[in-house]
Specification:
This protein is an alpha+beta fold. The chain folds into two domains: 3-227, 3-Layer(aba) Sandwich (Rossmann fold), CATH 3.40.50.300; 236-333, OB fold (Dihydrolipoamide Acetyltransferase, E2P) (Beta Barrel). 29% of the residues lie in helices and 32% in strands. It contains ten helices and 18 strands. Strand 4 and strand 5 (64-65) form a beta hairpin. InterPro entries: AAA+_ATPase, ABC_SmlMolc_Importer, ABC_transporter-like_ATP-bd, ABC_transporter-like_CS, Mo/tungstate-bd_C_term_dom, P-loop_NTPase, Sulph_transpt1, TOBE-like.
């Protein structure tokens, strides 16, 4: 394993940021630390980097005990959300900085910088200042600078959080391709479920300083360990006593079995390629069902139509607990 975290705890005054966290991060994989704000994911990343010191526990990187090593001796590349660029230096000099302070030969630095600028598609902007780049270009520069020292581990703290949705989407596609090309162990922090599901090989869900679940995107989405993971990784609704994905509910105008739940359509909303059906059951429960446009048209539904709901056999469900304060309502009920 590339990174071993064992029994790590961290407090800031009375606030428990990490509570006895133990996790193994595989070598060569792209791992996401996913969770709500204040859940502990950035603190864990900074402890791996050596930018914060754990109160308890141990950190190993590539079999070496790094618990007491300073950041510069961990061979870790770190990329912040807001680039942390040297504003007075050109793109080329920003990328070269880590190699220069390590006193590498000039020819080696020039060759490595040219290689990285080509890799991140910035060779034509080498002599510009960071202020002359777009946000996406500045983040690619930051990644090139982090990779320049050939780190054992690349750590990214919400690297695309300051960018607009379109640029974020483009950059996470690019990050996945870059990771596959350079094959460095990568750990990135995000609170964006879609980003984690799309980019990561493995996801570590962190909440209130504790690990909720670790697994592949498919494992977590299809086999959530508890209602928190169910709510945090994708849209959910509640039917009876169970949380379920809105697209895992079947809806019909005639009953199909004794377990069907009857209700009335209270609202119909088109959201892109999906149709969202709000149903109020006979007991007053509000349930959301999502259909494709063709499925919706075939059913001929309208507001006021009596419908029957059932959970698709084999779909992931969890017992419904109270909505945690850390999970915004729109995460629990929308297709975000």
């Amino acid at each position: 394993m590339s990174i071993e975290i064992a029994g790590v705890g961290k407090r800031f005054g009375d606030f428990v940021a990490l509570d006895n966290v133990t996790v193994s991060i595989p070598s060569g994989r792209l791992t996401a630390l996913l969770g709500p704000s204040g859940g502990g994911k950035s603190t864990l990343l900074r402890i791996i980097a050596g930018l914060e010191r754990a109160d308890t526990g141990r950190v190993e990187i590539e079999g070496i005990d790094a618990t007491d090593l300073p950041p510069q001796k961990r061979n870790v590349g770190f990329v912040f959300q807001h680039y942390a660029a040297f504003k007075h230096m050109s793109v080329r000099r920003n990328v070269a900085f880590g190699l220069q302070i390590r006193k590498r030969p000039k020819d080696e630095i020039a060759e490595r910088v040219d290689e990285l600028l080509k890799l991140v598609h910035l060779q034509q902007f080498a002599d510009r200042l960071p202020a002359q780049l777009s946000g996406g270009q500045r983040q690619r520069m930051a990644l090139a600078r982090a990779l320049a020292i050939k780190p054992t581990v690349l750590l990214l703290d919400e690297p695309f959080g300051a960018l607009d949705a379109k640029v974020r989407k483009e950059l996470r596609d690019w990050l996945r391709r870059l990771h596959d090309e350079v094959e460095v162990t990568t750990v990135f922090v995000t609170h964006d479920q879609e980003e984690a599901l799309e980019v990561a090989d493995e996801i570590v869900v962190i909440n209130d300083g504790r690990i909720e679940q670790i697994g592949s995107p498919d494992d977590l989405y299809d086999r959530p360990a508890n209602d928190f993971v169910m709510r945090f990784l994708g849209p959910v609704t509640q039917l009876g006593d169970h949380l379920v994905r809105p697209h895992d509910l079947q809806i019909s105008t005639t009953p199909a079995g004794p377990d069907d739940v009857a209700g009335q359509v209270s609202r119909i909303t088109r959201i892109g390629f999906e149709i969202r059906i709000d149903v109020t059951t006979a007991t007053g429960q509000a349930v959301i069902v999502t259909l494709t446009r063709n499925e919706f048209l075939a059913l001929g539904l309208d507001v006021g139509t009596t419908v029957h709901l059932r959970i698709t056999p084999g779909s992931p469900t969890t017992p419904a607990g109270p909505v945690p304060a850390e999970v915004p309502l729109e995460v629990a009920t929308s297709s975000h």
